[in-house]
Amino acid sequence: MAGTMLLPSMLSGCMSGAASPLGYRLNDYLNHFGVTTRMIMDVIVEGLSRGGDYCDLYFQHSISNSIALEDNSVNRAFSNVSFGVGIRVLNGDQTGYSYTEDITPQAMKSAARTAANIANSSARVRVMSLAEKQLPNYYRINTPWEEVSINDKIPFLQYMNDKVFSLNPSIVKTNVSFSDQTSYILFANSEGIIACDYQPMSMINTSCVAEKNGMREQNGYGSSGRNDVSFFDQANLDRIAKEAVESTMILFDAVAPRAGEMPVVLGAGSSGILLHEAIGHGMEADFNRRNESIFSDKIGKKVAEPFVTIVDDGTTPNNRGAINMDDEGNDVKQTLMVENGILTSYLHDRISARHYGVEPTGNGRRESFRHMPLPRMRNTYMLNGPHKKEEIIESVQYGIYAESFTNGQVRIGPGDFTFYVKQGYLIENGRLTRPIKDVNIIGNGPRVLGDIVMVADDMEMSEGGWTCGKAGQGVPASMGQPTVKVSKITVGGVNA
Amino acid sequence: MDNKERMELAQWASDFAIKKGASQAAVAISRSRSVQVEVREQRLETIRESTENNLSLQIYRDNKYSGHSTNNLNKGQLEKFISEAVDATAYLSPDPDRELPDPSLYPADTSADLGLYDPAHAGVSPEFRVETAMQTEQLLRQSYPELLSATARFSDNAVESVRVHSNGFSGEQRGTFFSTSASLSVLDGTGRPSGSFFAGGRFLSKLPNSDEVARKALEETLKQLGAEKIASGRYTMILENSIASSLLWRMFQPMSARNIQQKNSFLDGMLNQAIGSEHLTIIDDPTLLGGMASRHFDGEGIAARRRVLIDKGVLKSYLIDNYYGRKLGMTPNGGSTSNILMAYGNRNAQQIMEGTRKGILVTSFNGGNANSTTGDFSFGISGQLVENGKIVKAVNEMNISGNFKNLWNQLIETGNDPYPYSSAQTPTLAFRDVDFSGL
């Protein structure tokens, strides 16, 4: 085992002499985890010893570092190292799962025997010899985070702090956090696939508190992606600082909208949270396989106007939701969930694809080696439509324009979804007028899809550090959307 | 490795960090083992077994601070890990408030049995787990044959942990947790409402039986049939005891010393002032026998004591951790909550409802958020419309909105029915004139 890789990478300069992990080949990964293909195949055979029909091993070594600035100084740092292998055995739709943090033949076989218990028959499948699967590269980075020292990161935070304070004298507190994560993945399964992946991620968040006329407001802005250190140049830091300050100061002028149903215009970018909640989760095929989703009987049916096309895509370079293969060894692709208004495809993992007799869509994802894969979104967005942003806003007599969001949620069966608007504007007589803040929006997925009446031509991806939660697992995801008008949806507000 | 060996390893790790240049160190080592089974259509859907180890290390080096964790407990690897962690800390800015808690804050005695460990855990067999879930799922199927999907789960978990601080503290804790749950989906027009029931506790014998779990999951589902949004307006809000804790958690964030110090709290400056009605009393009690969140000390080693957070509407205490307590010049009392109790009233949910002319019984939250700086909140909800003391129909796809500074003053009653399956034993809560958004 490459012991040095278990260290926190904050100093990283200590790794002198090691070849860059960006150039690692399969043999380097096998050495890294201290295993051989023979050993892996033995574990797979053990996993299938009670009649399971499929087995996979997911080795992961992840290293995360973060530093934070508060009260003008970078005075805290954190690191985490996690190392282990998850072993899964399938028997039809049934799953046995176990993992070990001790990567030795004995411990792996013991975990495999536990997972094997999902089956109980004398049937045996043939274990295929392992052949390496070559992966595309959707993480276009030049410098691994292990080669960036804590000393190189501290200046980003100090610069951001100074910039935020320089932009507005009303700012009284600034917090900046910076984190990077690197995961080494080695995957092998009983169908003969073995593959390795090096997954980088970084995130910067800036929040500030401002005081004005005896009032206080807090807001912030962040950016995350599969980027390397070159992303954090002055232009990007300046842009993030400016967003953080402006999004805070505008809250002082905010008013509450009326309570009730009204037209809602969703600004381009992070309003893709609408798609994530209103349709994305309901299209995850495990819910449909179990007949639990409101979309369970809607494939092939018209659910939206013909100018609405919604995709889930794992291939957008450097995007937070990009993956070179999914977490069960499948190719990723652009999956059309809604094409020209027609519901086209669920998001599949291996189990659901087999259940429906279709090809996996590359949506089998997991939080870590400690978790079994589930159908999950990657980067969910809507393609451009025929309208213009200006004409969309002009078409609204009274409604809201929602610009930034903090979180969302959905109830899969009834289809009720919500998202929280941190900041936006009232639309009155076709014009953006007063700001609004802290408003929850609630609607019904299929109904709101049908109520999308205008789509602009200004699609933007969100750069926010979104983490999608499901069944106790969090995975990085992203989203995007052009400016969209929903004809009516319930807005949290005050009653006259 | 048992807790005695963990304690030795933690002591060694703390000593090693000091030897490498740390001024102070804190080390915690834990092991958590859990097994979960899930049954659908009278077949095992999943079995998941996991054993997770963790070592976490806090380094204080000349008033510079960093925290680290790893799941590799090999001593040779830990030597390198700790050396790097101590070296990296040198690059940070010093902060005079970065020190371990004063030893006077540590517990004098941790020997009392808080009733957190069920010896029955060792005897839980794979067959028992599967049979329990199978039985629950079977009962669900029998009770509503036209259901679309039914799932039953059983899980058990045992955690052992130790903590060592270089300035004179060591302690250990261990506990068990069991849970049984069920959920089902049914068809209702084009929608597929689903409901579930979850019960968890530290002792296996205190879990409800499969009959009760299946019955309550079915009730939770069927009461949603025909749900629709109704007119926006101000209604009395009756909050079911199982979800009332969701609103309480939102109050703990602005009560934290960090948010006070960072000017990020609408409760800044409100100590000993009224922030709610006389019905609002909140107690944090980590000493509760068998409590879900009982403990002798918290994650900083600070002695756990019962404390009144809000007394008849008056804010009596912030949640003060070691670092931000020092920054604020306040004595640390623990930055996190444990078991939450309230002052309970005289009527149960049914009786409160019967006395309500026009209200909405909120049974589920759906998303939403709150602003700890200003107190603004907005949450999605579903529940039941109550008119003249009776449930009239199911409602969903609605929001409640307002500001906590007002909402807690609108609290008109607490029930006598604390929810037993959570560390927050919240009763039914009733609020007057809450803004609901619907049609």
The profile of the biggest β sheet of chain B is: 6 strands, antiparallel
Number of helices of chain B: 9
Report the β-strand fraction of chain B as a percent range.
35-45%
Q: Output the CATH homologous superfamily of the largest domain in chain A.
A: PmbA/TldD superfamily
User: Kindly, what is the distance between the CA atoms of the first and last residues of chain A, rounded to a whole number of angstroms?
Assistant: 67 Å
Rg over CA atoms of chain B: 24 Å
Sheet/helix structural class of chain B: alpha+beta
Mean pLDDT of chain B: 96
Query: What is the end-to-end distance of chain B?
Result: 60 Å
> Which shape of chain A, going by the Cα principal axes?
globular
Oligomer designation: heterodimer
Strand proportion of chain A, as a percent range, falls in 35-45%
Please tell me the total number of domains of chain A: 2
Instruction: Determine the structural class of chain A based on helices, strands and strand pairing.
Output: alpha+beta
Give a short summary of the structure:
The complex is a heterodimer of chains A (496) and B (439). Helices cover 20% and strands 38% of the residues of chain A.
How do the strands and helices of this protein lay out in sequence?
The complex is a heterodimer of chains A (496) and B (439).
Chain A: H1 26-33, H2 37-47, E1 54-70, E2 73-91, E3 94-100, H3 105-116, E4 131-132, H4 150-167, E5 171-189, E6 193-212, E7 215-225, H5 234-249, E8 260-266, H6 273-280, H7 285-289, E9 310-313, E10 334-339, E11 342-343, H8 350-356, E12 364-365, E13 374-375, E14 379-382, H9 389-394, E15 398-410, E16 416-428, E17 431-444, H10 445-450, E18 452-455, E19 460-461, E20 467-470, E21 473-476, E22 478-481, E23 484-491
Parallel strand pairs in A: 4-6, 8-15, 14-22
Antiparallel strand pairs in A: 1-2, 1-5, 2-3, 5-6, 6-7, 8-23, 9-10, 9-14, 10-11, 12-13, 15-16, 16-17, 17-23, 18-23, 19-22, 20-21
Chain B: H1 3-19, E1 24-40, E2 43-61, E3 64-70, H2 75-89, H3 126-143, E4 149-165, E5 169-185, E6 194-201, H4 210-222, E7 233-239, H5 245-255, H6 257-261, E8 282-284, E9 307-311, E10 314-315, H7 322-328, E11 340-342, H8 349-354, E12 358-370, E13 376-387, E14 390-403, H9 404-407, E15 411-414, E16 429-437
